[in-house]
Amino acid sequence: MRTSQPGLLQTVLAPIVFGVAVIALWQGLVTALAIKAFILPAPFSIGAEFGANLQNVANGMTVTGRNALIGLLLGAVIGIVLAVVSSLGRLFDEMAAPVVAALSVVPIVALAPVLYTMFGAGAETARQLVAALAVFVPVYFNTLKGLRQVRPVHRDLMRAYSVSNWQATRAVTLPTALPFVFTGLRIASSLAVISALIAEYFGGPVGGLGKSITSAASSSNYGLAWAYVLGSIILGLAFYSAALLVEKLLTRRSGG
Amino acid sequence: MTNNGMTDNGMTDNGMTDNGITNSSMTNSTNSSASAASAVEVRGVGRIFTARKGPGVTALEDVSLVVAPGEFVSLIGPSGCGKSTLLRLIADLDTPTSGSIEVFGKPAKQARIDQDYGIAFQQAGLLPWRTVAGNIELPLELHGIGKAARRRRAAELIALVGLADFASHYPDQLSGGMQQRVAIARSLAESPSLLLMDEPFGALDEMTRERMQNELVRICAETEAAVVFVTHSIPEAVFLSNRVVVMSPRPGRIRSIVDVTLGEMAGRGEDLREDEGFFHALSQVRDLLHGDEAAAAPAGARGVETR
Question: Is the Cβ pair A253, B172 closer than 8 Å?
Answer without folding.
Answer: yes
